[in-house]
Each structure stands twice: as C-alpha cells, then as structure tokens.
Amino acid sequence: MRVCLISSSFYPAIFYGGPISATWDLSKKIGEKGVEIYVSTTNANGNKRLENVDVKNHRKQAENVFVRYYHEQIINLFSLSFLLNIYSDIKKSDVVYVQYLFHYTVAISLFFSCILGKKIVLCPRGSFSNFTLTTDKSFWKKLWISIFIKPYFTKINWQASSYLEKEDILKYFPNSKVDIISDGIDFDSFQNSQKVDIKSLVKKYTNKEFKEVSEVIFSMGRLHKIKGFDVLIDSFSMYVKENPFSKLLIAGVDDGMENKLLNQIDSLGLIDSVFLIGLVDFNQKKEILSNSSVFALCSEFESFGIVITEALASGVPVIVSNKTPWKDIEKNNCGIFAENRKEDFFRALNQIKLSNFSSEDCKKYVKDNFDWEVVSEKFLNLITKK
C-alpha cells in the first residue's frame, strides 16, 4: 500500500510544535510496518523556509518514508511546484492522508483526490474548535469550510485526535465517518532519564544561579495566546508567595506573545521566578521533564496535547486545563483537570503537592493508550478498512 501524506509543513519544521514531530513519528512507525509513505509538503517553517531539503524529488528519510518539500514562492500561501505536481503524487497512491484544514494544500488535494476517486483521510488538528472558528478571521474560515471542505465531506474519513475534536467535526458535518486516533509518543524514549540537581538544572536553562531551588514547575508550547501562559503566570505569582524558592520554566518559540509575557513577568516582580527559555530539543525537554515536580498547561484549547503524554511518560503528574480532552487524568491518578482560571490553577498547584500521584500510574496510562505501537495499529486499521 502507498499513502500520499499531504501536509502544509513537515519535520524538521518544528516551529509549528508537537504535531510536526507526531506526524513524523507516525510516518516512521507506519513505514516500519511495510506501508509506503510519500510525503508531499512545503519548505515552510514559520515565516522562514527550511534549508537543505530536497525540493525536486521525494527523498528517502526513513524506512518506506519518502519526503518532498515543495518550494513556496510565498511562504504559507503558494507553491507553484506543489500545484503542478500534487495531482501526480495523489494518482500514484492508494490512500490520501491530509493534515490541517485552512491551507491551500488542503483545498487542492481534496479536489484532485475526489476527481481520482481516492480514499481520503483528513485530520483537521483542531480546526473545527470553537476557539479556532470564533477568533482571528472567523468569517473567512467558515467561508473556507463552505467552499473547499463541504463539497467533499461525504467522501472524507475523518481522523479526530480526541473526543472533543470528534464532537466538533460532527457539529459541522453530522453523520460523518469519524475515528478517534490520537497522536502518540515513543514511550521507551522517555524512560531511564537522568536525575540532576535542580539548582544546576535551573542555572543551565536560565543562566542564573540561585542559592536555593525547592522545585521546578514546567510548561511548554508555542508562545501563543491559545496556550494560556498568562493564566499560568498569574497563578504562579500567587503560588510563589508561599513557595518562594519555586521556579517556573516555560519552553517554546515565540508566536506573538513573548513580549507581552515578559512584560507580565516584570510587572508581577517574577524576573527571578519565571523564565521563558525558548525552544528546546528532545533531550533538553526530556531532561527538564524528568526533573520537574509537575507539568502545567493552561490552554484555551487542545485537540490533543502531545506534551501532556510526554510529561506523563516521564512520570510527572500534570495540571491540565478543562478546555482540553484530558478529563481521564484524574480517574487514572495522573494529575488534576482544572478550570482554566488563575485561582483554580493556584489551588491545583497546592493540591498536587498533597496528592499521592505516582510515577508508575502516570507511565502506565501513557504506555497503555498512547505509545506509537498502540496508535499506529489504530491508524493502520483506519487506512486499510473498506
């Protein structure tokens, strides 16, 4: 079987966060199972272009995984070579797997896939959420769905990352075929992490040395308003009054909120307590997670939230916004599902210190549900079923 994976961006375009790594990992896992994956993507990486990638041919990147990065003349808006060649890429494939919704690559790919009668699997990655459709160009997004998605919705097999996303899809297109298949992680890669002195850890990532550090609270994501880092900082400003040696580290590339967050940190007098540490690679992320007391995420919306699985796989309990699909963490003894308000996150930070969350429970929940071996089998069933 040959799958044409169409995505507006692809690894190593890590500007776009966790979904990029997740798509790459899924591709490798499916390739290992004997399915050919031909990725048709662009060389976009935020407002820049990827360097040293093949824009002329599909080049082998892993077992049975071949990637072509079509050059964009206008970043995130247009690629002539994609327009001229995607028909051929789709024609050679048995299944077309499309990522995202509001991008020209999606509109073109759905049109050609339907003309050619191909099986289509579409993963919207949160594009149908109320937050997405009511903020920032909401009229145009709804118009886009009417023109470029609605004509084909009966021919689309939808992949939802969570029960929340399935509900969002069915609100727009009732009776559609929707399978819930979450993102996943390589569980084993997060095991046997090295424990380090947390004062040394803080110094390494902040370039500041402190005589005493009682704990590290960690959060991660692109610095965008949807991630709710302002709420987390406000809640931490309350928490640090009673826990003056605690430190909050926030990792992620700027996506419009960095200056605002820095001003907030300064105005709250937290310049020695809260740190924006920028983009971290896998090993750095693993190191921070394995030495943190808790991972906290105040997102206004997550269709899934890969970094939650990574934290839990590291044995770290989590505090997660109730605007995300992680309501099961409490019954699995992995963390707290909190109202997305500063007072509630403040209470959760205090409560989690008194709770009996165990590293073993956190890890078991992830291994049983979100390891790539489990997730990839679900995806294989989706693309092969009639």
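The above is record 1. Record 2 follows with the same two-line structure.
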Amino acid sequence: MSTVPAAAPTEGAAPTPGAAVVWSRLAKARLSALVLLTAAVGFLVAPAPAVDWARLGWACLGTGLAATSAAMLNQVAEVRRDARMRRTAGRPLPAGHAHPRTVFIVAVLAGYAGCAALAFGTTMLASALAAANILLYVLLYTPLKPRTTFNTLVGAVTGAIPPVIGWTAVTGTMAPGAWALFALLFAWQIPHFLALAWLYRADYAAGGFVMLPVRDPSGTATAQAALLSSLALVPVGLLAVLTGVAGVRWYAPVALVAGLWMSWLALGFLRERSDARARRLFLASLAYLPIVLGAMVADRTRAVTVATPADGAVILEVPPSAFEEPQ
C-alpha cells in the first residue's frame, strides 16, 4: 500500500487540523450522520409494540461504526484520485494528515466492531447486512467509479441498505415495509447525486471518475435521469402506505407533495441545464429526506403482538388512532 507524505509546511499555509477533526473527516461525519438517521427511521417504523431504546442504541452504534469503516476504506483506496480533485485534495489522506496504513487498520477494526455490536445488541441479519454493505461499498462501488457510470446505481444500493438494517434490527426478518424503505432511499439518491455530480463534473473528470455528467457534456442525459428518478419518488414514496409502514393522514400528502416538488425542480434542470438549476435540485433533495422520513415516523403505524396457540406470536399492525383515547 502506498503512502502519501505530508506536504512541507509553507508560510501562510493553513494549520494542521487536530486529531478529532482529522478522524471526523476520515469518518465523513456528515454522511455517517445521514446513514444513522435513515437507520434510526427504519428502526422506529418497524412493527413492534414499543420502542426498545437500548436496542436502538446498539443499532445506531453498529451502523455508525460500519459506515465509518466504509468511508475510511473508500478514502484509502481513492487517496491518489482525491489528491487530483479540488473538492477532496484537503482530505486527511491526500493532505498528509494521516497515514493510509493506520487508517486502514482503524477502518477494519471499526467494521468488525460495528458488525459485532449489531449481532450482540440486535439481530444477526442486521449484522450481516452491515457487513455486506461495507464489502459492496469498498469492493464493488469504489472500483466501478473510474470505470462506468453504472457506479451511481451501485452506490444508491449501498445508501439504501441502512434503513433496512434498522428495520431488521427490530424484526430480524425482511418484509414489504423494509423493501419500501429500500426503494425510497434508492430512488432519492439518483437525483441527489446527479445534481451534485453536475456541479462538480470538472472535479470528477480531473480525478478520473466516470460519472454521468463527465460523459454527458450537454447535460441532457443527466437531467433526464434526474427527472425520471424524481418522478419515481411519487409512487415509491407511497409504498410506505401500501405496506402499512405509515398512514394516510400525514405521511401520504407530505410524500406526494415532496415528490412532485422534486420532480418540478428536476424538470427545471432539464429545461435549463445550468449550475443554478442543479444546485436548486440538490438543495431540495437535502430537504426532501428529513421532511419525508420525519412525516413517516410521525405517522407510523404501530403493532401489537397477539399470541396464538398454534402459530406462536403474530404481528398485527394497528394504526396510531387505535391507541388514542376517545374524545
């Protein structure tokens, strides 16, 4: 494994960041926070009579460590490409603030610890999904980035797995609701990333990454893909209602309006393929996820467990109104 020597300090250069800042950047703290948010949503909307807060803590710890592991391993693999890009040249590895071997060891330990935490505190299925996601991110998504534009679809798969980890941390099984969460996160990531990639297309080209905007100078294909995936958010967003994850009182109208809003902005990007239009779509995607997931948690269905002599425990989903006192 090659090393990247630290650059010699020059007069007026920015000071070397502290260890906490360096490791926070290596963990991609903001991205990992988004992963934790989606995993927590998957946990909270999974069918259960009550929230097991201790188990939620284990789920967040394990998912967070797994996300940190994937982020660090990705940066170790892409250190030389990151050094060519203005947006990433200041990351700890290309800037010489950390040693690749040290980061690799910490990343592997974090991955093991994350999967162990999920296995110990939640379910084996959640642990297996976290391990698979690390491997998918590092061994498939990362190598595909300089080879084919299909890397975006693979990356969307890795980003859609965390809420399923949260779901399976409660239930230990896959169910239609888990697939609804997966579909929502998968569809959301396409316009989100394409808008970002359009803004940084010159940077991605300099780094040797094969993103759709790099191969699509006019932006037509990029904008069309962003529009189609944004339109898909409308029906996909309503899958949570059809699978009994969330209700029609609050979640359904919020998901419908948010999906149409994203589609309108994507249509604007198609009509005028400019940085300004792409930035609006990107910022809207940042707002879409917390709004829709927040509405899902607020309007989630609840579940009660009913014991039957023949079949054991049966999960029955009951709308929140059934638990409210009559007026």
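Strands lie at 302-308, 312-318.
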